[in-house]
Amino acid sequence: MKTMILAAGRGERMRPLTDHTPKPLLEAGGKPLIVWHLERLAAAGLREIVINHAWLGDRLEAALGDGRRWGVRITWSPEPAGGLETAGGIAQALPWLDSDPFLVINGDVWCDWDPGQARDLARAMPTHDLAWLLLVDNPSHHPEGDFWLADHTAFDAPPASTQGAPRLTFSGIGLYRPELLAGMKRGSAARLAPLLRQAMGEGRVRANQHGGIWVDVGTPERLAALDRDLRIGVGETMNDKTCAR
User: Fold this and answer.
1) Cross-strand pairs, 209
2) Residue 55 — very low, low, confident or very high, per pLDDT cuts 50/70/90?
3) Rounded distance between C-alpha atoms, residue 13 and residue 180, angstroms
4) Which one-letter DSSP state was computed for residue 108?
5) How many CB atoms lie within 10 A of CB 145?
6) CATH assignment of 2-233, among 3.40.50.300, 3.30.300.30, 3.90.550.10, 3.40.47.10
7) Exposure of 5 by Cβ count < 10 A (0-12 exposed, 13-18 middle, 19+ buried)?
8) Inter-axis angle of helices 57-64 and 33-43, to 10 degrees?
9) Are the C-beta atoms of residues 210 and 171 closer than 8 Å to each other?
10) Computed over its alpha carbons, how large is the radius of gyration of the chain?
11) pTM (two decimals)
């Protein structure tokens, strides 16, 4: 199974830290954010990785190279200045991804979800489905959430068939079939959310809720909090799953 790490964002909310350092290379717990992903993927046996970049991409490539230091093989997918947004970036990288479902991870999140589950989840995906999403409890900075979850299906509107279905936050971790991006022209910028919402309207997106630790490292303050928590020990300070959110 192939994996793509999304690393092309400018990181506007992280400025001035990202003025001279690409966001995935910012450190927490003594190592760059993206290295946490590489190590987890290698441990799970997911060693074929595609990484896109736009802002300061040369520095990202120089730091990570071909990935052999972490036991993975990296293929780089450069994008024009400004990037192509999430769906555009994935579509640009499709030639290096599988025709079967592939894993995509946002480069600016920290999560203890085991990517080793991805293979079994992909095998279990009905051929009708276009995506599977990992959803998490809503953090304090995003209390309204993104999608509803009922019977392992994601909805863009409250599902009438299930009372009290939770509205949760998309973690930035998902499995996608290439067909989700069918018709997209390579090199065109496009967001992922509209494609997911369309697929949800057709009942073609599955999801699971992750009860572990997830951090959206979107601001210098959340980065500093994550760094502190990781250095002290995740198990000791993040058990309430609210730290650094």
Assistant:
1) 135
2) confident
3) 29
4) T
5) 17
6) 3.90.550.10
7) buried
8) 40
9) yes
10) 17
11) 0.91
